[in-house]
From TrEMBL:
<dbReference type="GO" id="GO:0016616">
    <property type="term" value="F:oxidoreductase activity, acting on the CH-OH group of donors, NAD or NADP as acceptor"/>
</dbReference>
<protein>
    <submittedName>
        <fullName>Short-chain dehydrogenase/reductase SDR</fullName>
    </submittedName>
</protein>
<keyword id="KW-0560">Oxidoreductase</keyword>
<comment type="similarity">
    <text>Belongs to the short-chain dehydrogenases/reductases (SDR) family.</text>
</comment>
<dbReference type="Pfam" id="PF00106">
    <property type="entry name" value="adh_short"/>
</dbReference>
<dbReference type="InterPro" id="IPR036291">
    <property type="entry name" value="NAD(P)-bd_dom_sf"/>
</dbReference>
<dbReference type="InterPro" id="IPR002347">
    <property type="entry name" value="SDR_fam"/>
</dbReference>
Length: 297
């Protein structure tokens, strides 16, 4: 049985055999990415973690049997080329790409620094596009491959405190669906994952629950790996959220929705605990400054 035969779903029910598949997970040093890398490795895949924080990525990889890690700035095509050259030389061509790297600054739109806006759009949108552009052509040439773009329910549900983040995740979902159609019939599947609120550092300082259900990184990782079986275009975590919102968006009048949002507390992206969020925001500020300097050069 070829690797292609093992990667393709059988009857739409049985998970394909991932033993030996080469999987690259971006933003895999922490949170959803680390949980996803760990679950793929448990399925027998040869996992590579790409992250802008290589020391943390290497530490995470050491906790995952067989995993390896390397530096990756998803906004930089040269960085993609460097990592994928290393992966291919050591393990072979990439079978599965998980575009997970993302940033989530929260707060009032008018107070958002331009460098922060640039970072959100470049990481969450351009980074994902760079990953697809760097891997899909070789997948098409081989006649098989699988790409999972980790978007967000913020790519369907607009929320206060997330204007630019909403924009980036609406774009991520649209690009995923567009690429899925463009590469239909090539053997390459492009799937989008839309988590609700996730208990990771990205949501630190925000009161979880309310307008969105809360899930763990392991829940999202399970959904990512399950796309190897379903090859679904779009999967929300929990699964009912995206279909439920589609009904609300189509049939619920805006005044009723406005009242429901108020009762559910949908302004939690504005009401933040700055101290609880400080470690993440400080790291984001460092990345934003470094990114702005790199773009200016």
């Amino acid at each position: 049985m070829t690797l292609l035969d093992r990667l393709l779903p059988i009857g739409g029910r049985r998970r394909p055999d991932l033993n030996g598949a080469v999987v690259v997970v971006t933003g895999g040093a922490r949170g959803i990415g680390a949980a996803t890398a760990r679950l793929f490795a448990q399925q027998g895949a040869r996992v590579w973690i790409g992250d802008i924080d290589p020391d943390v990525a290497h530490t995470t990889a050491q906790t995952i049997p067989g995993a390896r890690a390397g530096y990756l700035d998803v906004t930089d095509r040269a960085s993609w080329d460097t990592l994928l050259t290393e992966v291919t030389a050591a393990a072979g061509p990439v079978d599965v790409l998980v575009n997970n790297a993302g940033v989530m600054p929260l707060g009032h739109f008018e107070s958002e620094a331009e460098a922060t806006t640039d970072l959100i759009l470049d990481v969450n949108v351009r980074g994902m596009l760079n990953g697809m552009r760097a891997t899909i052509p070789a997948m098409v040439h081989r006649g098989h491959g699988h790409v999972v773009n980790v978007a967000s329910m913020a790519g369907m549900i607009p929320l206060p405190g997330m204007v630019t983040y909403n924009a980036s995740k609406f774009a991520a979902l649209g690009a995923s669906l567009g690429a899925r159609r463009e590469y239909d019939g090539t053997g390459v599947a492009v799937c989008a994952i839309l988590p609700a609120a996730v208990r990771t550092e990205l949501s630190s300082g925000a009161e979880l629950g309310g307008a969105l259900p809360t899930v763990d990184p392991e829940d999202v990782a399970a959904a990512v790996v399950d796309t190897m079986r379903t090859r679904a275009a779009r999967t929300s975590v929990p699964k009912w959220v995206a279909p439920g919102w589609s009904l609300v968006d189509a049939f619920v009048p805006e005044p009723v929705e406005r009242l429901a949002r108020r009762l559910a507390g949908d302004r939690r992206g504005l009401d933040l605990d700055a101290d609880a969020r400080r470690a993440y925001t400080d790291r984001l500020d460092r990345h934003a400054s470094a990114h702005a300097e790199g773009v200016a050069q």
